[in-house]
Design goal:
Elements lengths: L1 H15 L8 H25 L15 H4 L3 H4 L24 H4 L8
């Protein structure tokens, strides 16, 4: 309740001209000054970091022999799964070719 009353009195005082308005240039100057300072620091950081050259990475060690290849048990599928059974290897003869009626073009044009 008290905050509301104090806020209302402050607004009334500003509207009456008792409290001087903050000139628009002050916040703008603070914003530009902060940005300029940040930009200058950024530029200085680049100027300092630019001459730095990263060292060449060390050669990586080879993987241990135990992890370099899959065990023989997993290297190939068992013979039972290597090919489909003969019953599924080809379509039955009834589906291997379309009847002649379906092989012709749908729209026959003049030649």
């Amino acid at each position: 309740m008290i905050k509301t009353i104090v806020g209302a009195l402050f607004v009334a005082a500003c509207n009456a001209g008792v409290v001087p308005a903050i000139p628009a240039a002050v916040p703008a100057a603070l914003t530009v000054g902060t940005y300029a300072t940040s930009y200058n620091a950024h530029a200085v950081n680049h100027a300092i970091a630019a001459p730095y050259v990263a060292a060449a990475p060390a050669a990586l060690a080879a993987a241990p022999v135990g992890y370099s290849a899959l065990p023989a048990a997993y290297s190939a599928l068992p013979a039972a799964y290597s090919a489909l059974p003969a019953a599924y290897s080809a379509l039955p003869a009834a589906y291997s070719a379309l009847p002649a009626a379906y092989s012709a073009p749908i729209i026959a044009g003049r030649r």
